[in-house]
Write a structure and sequence with these properties.
Length: about 250
């Protein structure tokens, strides 16, 4: 059976990821699998007990699975990715390399959960970075899924590389944005029919998607990015404050 997998340890970032994973498992109606990479068995038992207690304290109806294994955290989580709905890890000083290694090989999406932002009573945007490739279409599907689960608005973000001459031509930039946005609005028509209650809009932006995400970071709850973004996860996280879901390979 699919499960939401979360890496647990004694860190604050792992505790934040656990809280996020609890809600994800409840929303998806799948088990929550607690995974710990152990070096000392006694400490591993204590870590797992604390995680189980935290789940119980949430008061939410979660079916639990527990896994303790020796090895590198990224490798242990990778081994638990087969058949999983997603893997959740907390953000930390070393999360870039861990998440990149994990997302490059995992068989499911990898969510990197930010620990510094207090949860809001109003859902922020889910932003899905898309293009016409299979990886971009998969990011769209994952974005729709996540926005639907949390009752959030979805912004479908398509970027384009401006020419040097465009930088000094606001009219050319506006026209290119309109053309690209119209292209994606047409592609979204079937999704509107399947999800009539979902607030989904196409957004076009010149240059790097990182710039768009940085400008709108206060409105964003979750960024859903294609598989190849795994190698640049540190750039996406930075001081952003929002969570990032790296899709599996299509």
């Amino acid at each position: 059976m699919p499960a939401v997998v979360v890496g647990v340890d004694r860190s604050k970032s792992a505790a934040t990821a656990l809280r996020w994973a609890i809600d994800e498992a409840v929303n998806r109606d799948v088990p929550l699998r607690l995974v710990h990479s152990a070096s000392v068995t006694g400490d591993a038992n204590a870590v797992m007990r604390a995680a189980v207690d935290a789940v119980g304290a949430s008061g939410k109806p979660v079916r639990l699975q527990q896994r303790v294994a020796r090895g590198r955290p990224a490798r242990i989580l990778e081994l638990n990715s087969a058949g999983a709905s997603m893997i959740c890890v907390g953000s930390s000083s070393h999360v870039g390399s861990t998440a990149a290694a994990l997302a490059s090989t995992a068989d499911c999406p990898v969510a990197v959960i930010h620990s510094e932002i207090a949860p809001s009573s109003t859902p922020g945007w889910v932003v899905a970075e898309v293009d016409d490739s299979p990886a971009g279409i998969l990011a769209l599907r994952r974005g729709i899924e996540e926005a639907s689960l949390r009752g959030a608005a979805l912004r479908v973000l398509a970027s384009w590389p401006p020419r040097y001459t465009d930088i000094h031509d606001p009219d050319a930039i506006a026209q290119h944005n309109r053309t690209l946005r119209a292209h994606w609005e047409r592609l979204l028509v079937p999704w509107h029919a399947c999800h009539p209650d979902l607030d989904v809009r196409a957004v076009a932006a010149p240059g790097s998607v990182v710039n768009f995400l940085a400008r709108h970071r206060r409105s964003i709850e979750l960024a859903v990015v294609p598989h190849e973004r795994a190698t640049a996860i540190g750039e996406l996280l930075g001081p952003s404050g929002f969570d990032v879901l790296i899709c599996e390979a299509p």
